[in-house]
Amino acid sequence: MNKEKLKAGLEKGQPFKAGLFQGFNKIQGERFVWNIPEINKSEVERISNENNFSLPTASVLYTRGLITKKDIGSFIFTSKEDNVFDSKLLKDAELAAKRLIDAINNKEKILIFGDYDVDGITSTSLLLLALLPLKANVNFYLPNRIKDGYGLSERIVKKAAQNNYKLIITVDNGITAFPAAGAAKDLGIDLIITDHHRPNGSIPKAFAIIDSNQPDCFYPYKELAGVGTIFKIVSIIYSELQKELPDKIYELLMLGTVADVALLTGENRYWVKYGLNKINKKRSFAVSVLAKNSGLNKNKIDSRDVGFMLAPQLNALGRLDDPRSAVQFLIGSQSDKIEEIGLKLKQINEERKKIDRAIYLDIETAIFDKKINLEKENVIIAASKDWPAGVIGLVAGKLTQNYGKPAILLHLDSDGLLKGSCRSIPEFNIFNALQKCSDLLIQFGGHSFAAGLKLHKKNLPEFKSRLEKIILEEVDQKDLVPKIKIDGFLDLPDLKYSFLSELELLEPFGNGNEQPVFIIKNVTLQGDAQILKEKHVKCSVFADGVIKPVIFFNRPELYYYLNNNKEKYFNLAAYVSKNEWNDKISIELQGVDVSLSGDFL
C-alpha cells in the first residue's frame, strides 16, 4: 500500500493496524512529531503469548528492547542481587566511611555541605538521619541560592575552620570546588566530596572523592543521583557497625532520585521501587503533608506523583527561599512544625508556578515577535534581570519539550553577570557543548541533558554564535523539532483493569523508563470539548463501540481544534493511567497530542 492510498483510507475512517506502518515512522501531530518505532508483529505476539500480556503491553516491552522472557522477568521483578552493586566498588568509598567512623568515635565536629535542590536537600537529610543516631557531632549547611550561589566556597570553609570543624563532607556537589578544596587543605580540614556530576577535566584535591563519573572510578552503575552516592557511603558505615539503616533512609533515597530526574534503570530503578513500596505501606508525616498540599487523594503514590506533585514543593523552597527548613520538614519529629513548614512549602510552590507562567509567556511573546527566531535559531537563549535565577531551569525544560530545541535561560545581575540553566534534547549533549565554550564561561557543570553556567554579559553573543555552530555540526535538523516517542497501538476496548495492572508492573516511570505513549487510531469526538481553568481541555472520544473521557493538560489550543474538526476521524496519542477519586478507581486517558487521520510525514 503506497502513502497516498494509506492517507486516503485513513481520512475516510478506515481502521489501520501496526502492520500498515512498515516504511512509515512519523506522524505530524498538532504540536509534536510522533516517532513510531518499527514493530515486528510476530515478535510482539510471541512476547504476548509467552508472558501472558496483552498486545499493547507486549509492544511496549518490544520497543524498549525487552525481548526475552529472562530480560522481561528481570525488569519487572527487579532484584537487589541483579541490580545493586557492592558500595565498596566506588572509588574512595571505604576511605570516606572509615574517616566518618573515626570522626564519630573521636567526637570531631562534622559539617555536611549540601545543595538547595531536592537532591541536595534529601542527601543532607539522609546523612544527618544516619549520623545522628550514631552520636555524631554533626551539623549541616545548605547554601542560599541568591546569597551563597552553588557549591562549596572558600568562605564557607574558612567559617567552618573558625568554628573548629575538622571534617567537611559535601553531598550532591563539590566535584568542581577547586578553591574550596585548596582552602580546606591549608586550614587542616579533611574534605570528603560526594557528588554525581561530571568532572570538568581535573578534579579537586581532597581527602576522598566519591563520584562514579570520575574516569578512574570503576563502579559499574554510573547514574546514581547525589542522594544515591551518599547512600552508598552510609551503607558501608552501617554495615561496618553491624546496624540496620533507618527505614526513613529509603524514602529520602527515592525522593531525591526521582526529583533529580535520574535514570530509572538498574540500581536506581530498584531503590525507587523499594522506596515507593515503603511509603505506600506506611507514609511518613512529611509525605502525607506534601500529598495533602497537592490534593493527592490516592492510596498508592507512584513515581509520577513524586516527580510532578510532591518534589516540586521541596524544590520551590530552594528556588525562592531558604532551603534549610526543608531538612527539618523531612526528618523532624514535631508534627506541628512539619505542618507549619508544609504550609509554607505549598504557598511558595504556588508563587513559583505564577513566576514560571510569567517567564514562559515572556519567551513565547519574544518567539511570536521574532525576537527569538526559531526558523533560524536552533538554541533558545534569553536573559532578563527580572527572572529569578531559581526558577528559570524549569521554564527552560518546558521550552525544550514544547519546541524540541535546547534552551538556555539566564538571570542578569547588577554586576553584568549572567547565571542560568540549560536543558537539552537527547541528540545534543549540552555538557560537552559547554566544555567547547569553556573559554567564554566563568563556571559551568552538570550532565548531558541539564547544566548550569555563569558568564559575563559581554560574552553572550559569541557564546550564542558558537553554540549554534556546534549544534549544526552535531544534530540533524529533523531532530530539532518537538517530538514524542510512541510505544504502541491501542484500541479503546483494550482499556481494561487487567491492562492497567500490566502497566503497573512496568513502573516506576521516569527518565529512561518513560510512561508509555499509545496511539489510539481513528477516534471521533463525542459532544463538544470543554476548556477548564482556561488551559486544560476535556473531551470524550468514540471508537469501536466504546466512549472514553480524555484530558489534555496545558493544551488550550486544542479546544478550538477539536470542536472545529468534530465530524472528522483523528488519531490520539495518550497515556493510560489510573484515576482514584472517593475510593473509586477508573481508567483515565491523558492526551498528549492529536492528528487528523492521514497527517503522515
Shape descriptor reads: globular
Gyration radius from CA atoms, angstroms: 25 Å
User: Which regions are unreliable across 5 or more consecutive residues at pLDDT < 50?
Assistant: 1-24
Strand content: 15-25%
Biggest sheet: strand arrangement? 4-3-5-6-7
Provide the domain count: 3
Oligomeric status of the shown chains? single chain
Give the rounded overall mean pLDDT: 92
What top-tier CATH class of the largest domain fits best?
A: Mainly Beta
Q: What CATH architecture label of the largest domain applies?
A: Beta Barrel
Cα end-to-end separation: 16 Å
How many strands appear in the DSSP assignment?
19
Largest sheet: 5 strands, parallel
> What structural class do helix, strand and pairing data support?
alpha/beta
Helix content: 40-55%
Brief rundown of the structure:
The protein has 601 residues and is an alpha/beta fold.
Outline the structure in words.
- The chain is of the alpha/beta class and 601 residues long.
- The protein has 3 domains: 3-64 and 487-596, OB fold (Dihydrolipoamide Acetyltransferase, E2P), CATH 2.40.50.460; 87-245, inorganic pyrophosphatase (n-terminal core) (Alpha-Beta Complex), CATH 3.90.1640; 372-479, Diaminopimelate Epimerase, Chain A, domain 1, CATH 3.10.310.
- It has 21 helices and 19 strands.
- The chain has helices at 3-11, 41-51, 55-63, 69-76, 80-83, 93-105, 118-131, 154-162, 178-186, 226-240, 248-259, 266-281, 285-294, 303-320, 324-331, 335-368, 392-403, 430-435, 460-474, 497-505, 557-564; strands at residues 26-28, 33-35, 109-113, 137-141, 167-171, 190-194, 208-210, 380-384, 407-412, 417-423, 443-446, 450-456, 483-485, 488-490, 518-532, 536-543, 546-552, 570-581, 584-596.
- The strands form 4 sheets. A 5-stranded parallel β-sheet has the order 4-3-5-6-7, with helices on both faces.
- Helix 9 (178-186) links the parallel strand 5 and strand 6 (190-194).
- Helix 8 runs parallel beside helix 9, helix 10 runs antiparallel to helix 11 (248-259) and helix 11 (248-259) packs across helix 12.
- The radius of gyration is 25 Å and the shape is globular.
- The two termini are 16 Å apart.
